[in-house]
Amino acid sequence: MKTISVSFRRLVAPTALLLTLGLLGCDKQLDIEPQQSVDAATALSTPEGVQSALTGVYARLDLPQSYGTNLLLMADLLAADLPTAATFTYIGWQGTFQSYREVSRKQMTDVNTEADRTWNQNFQTINLVNLVLDALPVVADADDKQRIEGEARMIRGMLYFELARLYAQPYRTTGAFSNAALGVPAPTATPGLPINLSANKTEADAARRIARSSLEETYTQILADLTAAQDLLPEANDRTRFDQYDAKAFLARVYLQRGEYATARDLANEVINDSGASLNASSVSTFTNKNSSEVLFEIQQNDQNNAGNSNDGLATFYSSNAAGFGGRGDVRIYQSFVDLYGADDQRGFNPQIGASLIYEGTGRRAGFLRTYKWNNAGQNIPILRLSEMYLIRAETNLRLGTSVGATALVDVNRIRTRARATPLANVTLASVLQERDLEFAFEGFRVHDYKRSGRSIGAGTAAIPANAPALVMPIPKYEINLGNALPQNEGY
Hints:
mainly alpha; Serine Threonine Protein Phosphatase 5, Tetratricopeptide repeat; two-stranded antiparallel sheet; two-stranded antiparallel ribbon; 8 strands; disordered N terminus
């Protein structure tokens, strides 16, 4: 893993198209003048070229700096327990990569490698999305043009959302866990992201200084993109591409993050009722079978094309096997978290049932608890699945005192019963939030859920408040050095 030191504001079209065509490795130092670069005007001058560029955008979602690793792993490590804690609650980092250790210990600086490359590579993808959108006039077929625009805006909205959650404080305006209650400025006064909706096609474009928008403005753009995607995307699409129910599902996630519970509830209910997805019979099969009935969208990988199998990739860091794909065994799971599952829960640790999602590692750093969710470099990475919609509906119904679609108890027990866990007799907000912890463990949900609900990370004297600056990643130093348009996050 090498540091990428080129600002996203310096990225120009030829480099973006080079990345699309796979001529530049994702872990190489970025070369502004590559010999095999492709002129954007030429590459995007035909409908086939625009579609090819969009395919390249999808491929970039599997980068280790994106959903292939960091958008999930970094969020998990921000939720990791400090090594000095007297009581452990979730996971810990055992690996040798200093950059990830800094994240897990909340000791990042403005030159942290993972903060740098996560920012840089995802903004490069956003620039490529903008190139695709700018080229839409060459697509004559109306249906193709609409679909391409919907897919591109879906990806841009998703990436702005993920970056906002990592590089800004959470968005909440009302209630016990509002920004004011958490001691965070209102979204209109909280720094968000630099929003760029036009592609960098020339050096002059790339030299622009784009200021950080407010968090309110950032979310306005996120919602604009995802709402447009919902309207533009087809009802059904190839399983490897987004459709309108994927957009509705992601919008439900965004509205939940914002605390707009009625909208989140109604979108989740629509996905449950109309998407055609259905829960898998087993919690395990979501991660052992590709493109299963439960998954709305997942990143496609195989043994040859994946985010990495030695220094990158989720399985690299989470798995520890003596045979087959070995893994580094860098992320350990603490017993106190596993105990929350109960004896028969497939999502926990139970060697007797032979089909549980947590196991004792036998390879690197053997003897510690690991997860089967990320156990092979070639497995797909679920990003949106139906179980999330059930738990969004459960939480929002409970908060609102409604029972749209089903009661909160019915929805929570639907997830627990599928996992062979003991059904609950009643539910509270705490038990619904804990069910999210159990269902989405090691998938990058925990820190975002804790921040939006005002819960501290960790326990006792090592607990980190939900509004702590250490839970927000730094803007890369090289971006700050370009000018005063990007104020740094607090604490860096």
